[in-house]
Design brief:
Elements: H1 14-44, H2 46-54, H3 57-63, E1 70-71, E2 82-86, E3 93-96, H4 98-103, E4 105-108, E5 124-130, E6 133-141, E7 148-153, E8 156-159, E9 164-169, E10 173-178, E11 183-191, E12 194-202, E13 206-210, E14 214-219, H5 225-233
Parallel strand pairs: 2-12
Antiparallel strand pairs: 1-6, 2-3, 4-5, 5-6, 6-7, 7-8, 9-10, 10-11, 11-12, 12-13, 13-14
Length: 251
């Protein structure tokens, strides 16, 4: 008869026990660290979570910078072009048909700055009519430090409030104010077929201002370019302080 083989069970050594406890302690630390981080994150995001689940959808859209656009005047003549005027006393005007604006068009200045060295269009801004309202598409860059104040894409606003003093969308006008209380962009109708566009466009090599007049191509190679630009920008009268007629036209 053959002898039965004996089964041997290897008991854990003290070293194995220590290793096991170390693994358990590390796992426990990671577990509670993850729980703590999750709690901190949730506490920091309580307002956002509350807003997401308890705020009505319409109010959420409003808080996401959804705007209604500037309402077209009731007596706008669709058979005539709509004129975009750069500056209150400027002779620089762009004209578009209603169909062009409904399709959406890009407003570009006629002459580029620094054609021989750093070609750059002084002004590039989208204009579009939707649902009987006019909208713009524009990137606004702060004059003082070249930071982007915000991006406006028709009825969607991406405004960075840390860099903006205030902004004022309404049926009659659109206005963005920078940290220095200067008008960075404003848009309104001054008669039934004319839009007044004012503000400044801070490009890579040049600054361009539409205020009392249109002053393009203020070169950044000039050490006093900010002073020159601001002297024109401060002439822009804020629309929020201006009277409008009952038809929504600037008086």
């Amino acid at each position: 008869m053959s002898k039965k083989s004996k089964a041997y069970i290897q008991l854990p050594t003290n070293r194995d026990k220590k290793r096991h406890w170390v693994i358990r302690i590390i796992s426990s630390i990671w577990f509670w660290l993850a729980i703590t981080l999750a709690l901190i994150s949730s506490l920091l995001d309580v307002p956002a979570a509350y807003h997401k689940y308890f705020t009505p959808e319409r109010e959420q859209i409003h808080n996401q910078k959804f705007i209604t656009g500037v309402l077209l005047p009731k007596d706008l003549n669709p058979s005539l072009p709509v004129n975009i005027k750069l500056g209150i006393n400027s002779q620089v005007t762009f004209s578009y048909s209603i169909n062009q604006l409904i399709a959406g068009t890009e407003l570009r200045s006629y002459v580029a700055c620094d054609v021989m060295t750093h070609p750059e269009m002084p002004l590039q801004l989208g204009i579009k009519i939707m649902n009987n309202r006019i909208y713009v598409t524009d990137t606004i860059t702060y004059l003082e430090n070249d930071e982007v104040i915000g991006i406006i894409d028709k009825n969607a606003w991406f405004l960075f409030n840390d860099n903006v003093l205030d902004y004022f969308p309404s049926d009659n006008f659109l206005e963005v104010i920078d940290r220095q209380n200067h008008v960075a962009l404003s848009l309104c109708f001054i008669n039934s077929n004319t839009v007044l566009l004012q503000g400044y466009w801070n490009n890579r090599n040049n600054v361009n201002v539409a205020g009392n007049s249109f002053m393009p191509c203020i070169s950044k190679e000039d050490p006093d370019y900010k002073k020159t630009a601001i002297n024109e920008i401060i002439k822009i009268k804020p629309l929020r302080l201006s009277p409008f007629s009952k038809d929504g036209l600037l008086k």
